[in-house]
Amino acid sequence: MELLKERIRKDGVLKAGNVLKVDSFINHQMDIALINEIGKEFKRRFADVKIDKILTIESSGIGIAAITAQYFDCPMVFAKKSQSINLDGTMLCAKIESFTHKRVYDVIVASRFISPGENILVIDDFMANGCAAQGLCEIIESAHANVAGIGIVIEKGFQMGGKMFREKGYRVESLAIVDSMDLETNTITFREE
Ligand code: 5GP
């Protein structure tokens, strides 16, 4: 998605530890016009798939998934990162190792929001090692629902997540795939599509 790549080149900031900061337009301040285009692009790429629901993870996935869900005309559910007193009934749980915070935490979805046989699209802002998406897929599959696809805004293609999912046969659509990031020269190389 050219518009997204241009914006990453212009406003993305490289940080130590293979981190790309996009907090001026996606992760903190959000450029809603851009997120709308991202939502449309996910719809275009998954136009051939019946999507009953979108699943993401709090917090940075929520805004993107909410706008994307408007284009699919379906509900959006976000996995919560900790047990909350507001969650009642049966829970679907998975453990996720955070790439940015380097710790393992539980993610939870109330089982009444994912039904057997539903086709669910996973949406997230980044794919690095694939732990976040893996946890969401585990939750979907433990509810006997189907992972219809995985839509990622920015995939870091030099990390293993995308490759691992594609090898397992999941359909992964990433709107921008970063093949390399060089902190010293401040250059980002995108994969040609
Ligand atoms: P994974 O679970 O695939 O290793 O990492 C994906 C999660 O970590 C995403 O939900 C995202 O929030 C965060 N993440 C991974 N890499 C980056 C990055 O380079 N920049 C930012 N802003 N978040 C990242």
Structure description:
With 193 residues, the protein is of the alpha/beta class. Helices cover 29% and strands 33% of the residues. The protein has a six-stranded mixed beta sheet, sandwiched between helices. Strands 1-2 form a two-stranded antiparallel sheet. A two-stranded antiparallel sheet has the order 5-6. Helix 2 crosses helix 3. The protein is globular and about 50 Å long. Guanosine-5'-monophosphate binds next to strand 2, strand 7 and helix 4.
Topology of this structure?
Elements: H1 2-11, E1 13-15, E2 19-21, H2 32-45, E3 53-57, H3 60-72, E4 76-79, E5 91-97, E6 104-110, E7 119-127, H4 131-142, E8 146-156, H5 161-167, E9 172-182, E10 187-190
Parallel strand pairs: 3-4, 3-7, 7-8, 8-9
Antiparallel strand pairs: 1-2, 5-6, 9-10
Helix pairs in contact: 2-3
Bound molecules: guanosine-5'-monophosphate.
Produce a short descriptive summary.
The protein is α/β, with parallel strands linked by helices.
Bound molecules: guanosine-5'-monophosphate
Mean pLDDT: 95
N-to-C span: 9 Å
Question: Within the largest sheet, what's the order of strands?
Answer: 4-3-7-8-9-10
Q: From the structure provided, what is the oligomeric state, counting identical versus distinct chains?
A: single chain
Beta content comes to: 25-35%
- Principal-axes shape call: globular
Helix content: 25-40%
Radius of gyration, in angstroms, nearest whole number: 16 Å
The main sheet comes to: 6 strands, mixed
Number of continuous helical runs: 5
Task: Considering the chains and any ligands shown, give keywords for the structure.
globular, about 190 residues, six-stranded mixed β-sheet, about 35% strand, two-stranded antiparallel ribbon, binds guanosine-5'-monophosphate, single chain, alpha/beta
